[in-house]
Structure formats: C-alpha cells, structure tokens
# Entry
Amino acid sequence: MARSFRPVLILTTVLALLGFGVTPSTAATPITVATAIGRQDGSTASVTGWVVGQPTATSTVVRSNFPNDYALALADSASQTSTGSMLYVQIPAAFRASYGLQSNPGLLGKQITVTGTLAAYFSHAGLKDATAFTGGGSSDPGDPSDYYAPAAGKTGAALKAALHTIIANQTKLSYDQVWNALKDTDQDPANTNNVILLYSGRSQSKSTNGGGVNDWNREHVWAKSHGDFGTATGPGTDIHHLRPEDVSVNSARGNLDFDNGGSTVAECPGCAADADSFSPRAAVRGDVARMILYMAVRYEGGDGFANLEPNNSVSNGTAPYIGKLSVLKAWAAADPPDTFEKRRNEVIYTTYQHNRNPFIDHPEWIASIWP
# Structure
C-alpha cells in the first residue's frame, strides 16, 4: 500500500528544524474567555465572550459612562461581575467606531468574537493587537433585530400591539431614582460633569438639580395631567419621556400641547409658546415627537394607568390625549434621531429600564401606525 504523505506537517517540521519560528494557527476555532485567561502566552487566538463593560484599571470595569472607545471586557456570562473572570480587550483604532463602548453602548450584553494576541492588558489577563471583531450586531448596534422579532412583518394596529407587548417588559424606577438616571442618560458628551437641558439646550452641572432658580428639574414631556398619572411609578417615572430642564422653562411649558407658533420663551432659545401650545427648539422637535409616540404605544390602559393617545387637537386639558399629532409627525420627519438620542435610548435599555423607544430605532414605523 502506498504511504500517505502530509506535506503541511513535513514543511512545518523542516522549517522548525531550520530554526524558523512557526506559530500554529489557533484562531480557527474560538476559545472561551476562561481558556484565554489561562493562556496568556503571546499566542494568537479567537475568543468568544459576552461584552460586560469597559476596563479602566486592573480591577475596575465600568458598565456606563464609558470614557472612550479604547477597550472592552469579555466574560463567559453576560451577567459576570467579577473582574477576575473577565478578559480585557484592547481595541485598535480601526475597530473603535464599531466596537468602542462609548460610541456603541448597545454592545453591552452582546456576544462577540475577537481575534488577537493573548497578552496582559491593564496588568490583567487580556487580548491585544486585535485583527478581527465579529458579532454583536456592530453594523447597527442600536437596532437589535431579536428585540423586535415579534413585530417583524406587521403594520398598523398589529404593529402597535406587538410593540406594546415588547416595550411593556421593563424595569420601573422610583421618582427619586430618576434624578441619577437623567444624569447618565442626558450627559453632555463634551463635559461629563454636565447634562444637556432638553428644550433650552443649555449644558448645566449635574449637581444643580432641584427646585431653585436656574436649577434643572424633571420635565415630563407627556405632561402629567394628560392622563392624570402624576409621579407614580409607571408613566410618571418612565425616563423615555423624562428629561432635564430649567425650572422656569419647565414651568413655561406647563401642560401645554405641542404645536408650531407662539412667542419667544425666556431662557429657551428657539422655543415658542402661546395660550394652548409649546414648540421646542428645532434640534429636539423630533426627539419630543418620538417620546410622545413611545408613550402612546407603551401605555395602553393597562397597569392601572390611562390609555395615552396623541390626537390632532390642543387644549386637551386633563384628558389622556396630547397633540398635535400632525405636527409631531412632521417634527419627527424633519429631525431624525441623532447620536445623542440614540445613545440615550441605549443607556436606558442597557442600564435602567431595559426597554427601548422603537421610533428611535425604526422612525419609519411612525407612518405605519399613524398614517
């Protein structure tokens, strides 16, 4: 019988005998994080794990307020909190826009595979000089298709019903917890000590929250009286529509419906108000519309709360309606979701309520539900 030769094995052996270093390829089959932690030998490997935060020191991994896009931590479980069971991954510049957590906070809790060198990073078990990242929905981390799977292919009332079921699954905050949540969700990207006030656009210290002159407080975009829910846990504490705002500007808006026109509002450049309506600055009109429409889908008369709905009227008073729908739809079309709004949606989803505003992820659904 003819002998079977193995050219690759023979070539590898010859090269080794001649003194040429040959590193076996270990990147073909991904290894676990635990295996990677135990194999810090400078070899190349592909590691599959769950994104659990960003390392900022040897024993510190943060899960929000990500300082930059330079690193992430992987674990074999999405719920892992022990840094000793995490692999610290250095993110080269070429991958930061897609896999850095400051730019893509929605990656938190996602499973990814990274190929690189198993070597210490932050004086901790790590993976450096990565050559490939895959998984995690990095091409559009703000739109997790599995989250919206039950709504796939639906339109109109059926779409609205499906989205209600999806987003009603949420963690509820107390009204006191809202303060700290807003300091995170509305953080000024240019100054992490500040928040951006919704209507006025002013950047203001996080610590100046309260009820005094020029303090910022908790604005209910869907006014509390439009459904009589007050500050009760539920719509009264849902941070998808609660935003920081100057005390006096919040008071000027009051419980007015939304519409175009009116006179200038003090301390709120670009805002206008009249006897029955309020108009925010142009840069956030779409944000306001998407928050209102989120509330209309989330609160459908269950949970002991009113069925919130937009209509095409102003002066809705204490009825569970808010308007004008035609204006809100136009605002949403003219001002599509921006980076700040998308980040906010991600932070609420990953850190606080664990539900999303579907109209930030899919603006086209507005016209499907409200043609």
